[in-house]
Amino acid sequence: MNRYEKLADNIAQRIRAGSLKANDRLPSVRELKSQMGISASTVFSAYYLLEAQGLVEARQRSGYFVRAGAEMPANELAASEPVLRSMSVDVSSLVFQVLAQARERDMVPLGSAFPSPELFPFEQLAAGLTRALKRMDPWQTVEDLSPGNALLRHQISLRYGSVGMDVPASELVITSGAMEALNLALESVTQPGDVVAIETPTFYGALQALERRGLRAVEVETHPRTGVDLDSLARVIDQHPVKACWFMPTFQNPMGCTMSDAAKEQLVSMLATRAIPLIEDDVYGELAHGARRPPPAKAWDRDGWVLHCSSFSKSLAPGYRIGWVAGGRFAATLGRNKLMSSLATALPSQLALQEYLQHKSFDRHLRALRHSLSRQQAACLRFIDRYFPTGTRVTRPEGGYFLWLALPEGVDSLALHQDALRLGIGVAPGHLFSADRRYTRHLRINYGYLGDPRLEGAIRSLGDLANAQLKSTTGKSEPIFEQRSSRP
């Protein structure tokens, strides 16, 4: 990390540990400059970063202060407890049922898998598409079959290089979104009936992919802050004939957890030693709330066992359906499978993104997007603390746009989802995120709809519904908000 990032990280840890509390004044720029022997610009950069993360706020002529609610929540979720056996997967019917009910535009989209489309530069992308199509050589419709447009693959290779990774364009296969990349990766390293190690809870799209290919899932203990537990993974590999791992090491969906750099390096080494491929789902990696994008596990791949899958759908161009996979030693197999399954990815979308990326606007867009998501997370956490029942536990990710909530005993999240739908509110119940539907009192909430005036009212309504369930099952409930004078 840079010096200002280290300073910001130190202050953030003190805030989250409670040694710096709401409305505490931070040292002035002059004080820190003198105490630590650093430049004023370093201090300012640290404070700007903390402000973007929603932890501090500047007050006119007074300096910087800890934001109210920045230290919340005090109760961290415990690590998940995996089922110690391989399981067949059957979740698609529930996924389709839940998600089909939350597509209307007038629905408050807390259950959506996408951030607000208003956060993305569609006008600039459209202008790039127009320029690219005017120059398009008709022969590109043939030349740019799988593995995809050469110039776009070059731009993606340069993006890897910007974080210190050497991923040649020849290793890349352009796909129709990240889900095709992940499915192709799974097809390239498994056969029906094989066992695949997954996180728990895990992205329901991973469960659907395993179900479609007739694969069995075995779960690995996953911590809501630090991600996959490597000791648990070692035990799983010793006890089961694992043929591949499908993990999301950075800003995992649904919990938002991120493995440390050291843990990612150890993960890659452990799997390479055992010749087990790692399918790395990294669609949220660019959405760090700070200035530093955590490197993917692929950064430590020396032997080609990591199949790194990502897309532009969450960070730049939703709806354009452009993803890719950096396949390592499996690149040729991936290219053949892509050619046999869908032949090619839509050329106009590839050309539009290639045009946009070469004009170097992506990083400027990402800075604004990261700042927006960080501030929105802080607001959503405040509303949850204010309106949800006492005992609710919630994650605080350092990137992405999801919160994972554990509600008190007595609340059923699927019933809560159904009640919320009648109020025009969509949520993603925890039942979706495991093969055995065990997360019955958990919710995933999407806070990526910046500036939606309905957000606070929707969170309050969800809190009221949860309290109503508690009252009906236990005879106890929280008082309504107007009576909670002791709570922020």
Short characterization:
About 40% of the residues lie in helices and about 15% in strands.
What does this structure look like?
The protein is α/β, with parallel strands linked by helices and 488 residues long. The protein is built from 16 helices and 17 strands. The protein has helices at 3-17, 29-36, 40-52, 92-100, 122-135, 140-143, 150-162, 177-189, 204-212, 230-239, 261-273, 331-341, 347-358, 362-387, 413-421, 455-474; strands spanning 56-59, 63-66, 108-109, 172-175, 195-199, 216-220, 222-223, 227-228, 242-247, 278-281, 306-311, 323-326, 393-394, 402-406, 425-426, 428-429, 442-446. It has a seven-stranded mixed sheet with strand order 4-12-11-10-9-5-6, with helices on both faces. Strands 13-14-17-16 form a four-stranded antiparallel sheet. The protein has a two-stranded antiparallel ribbon with strand order 1-2. A hairpin with a 7-residue loop joins β13 (393-394) and β14. α1 crosses α3 (40-52), α5 (122-135) packs across α13 and α7 (150-162) crosses α13. This is DNA-binding transcriptional MocR family regulator. In the C-terminal section; belongs to the class-I pyridoxal-phosphate-dependent aminotransferase family. One of its GO terms (molecular function) is DNA binding. InterPro entries: Aminotransferase_I/II_large, HTH_trans_reg/aminotransferase, PyrdxlP-dep_Trfase, PyrdxlP-dep_Trfase_major, PyrdxlP-dep_Trfase_small, Tscrpt_reg_HTH_GntR, WH-like_DNA-bd_sf, WH_DNA-bd_sf.
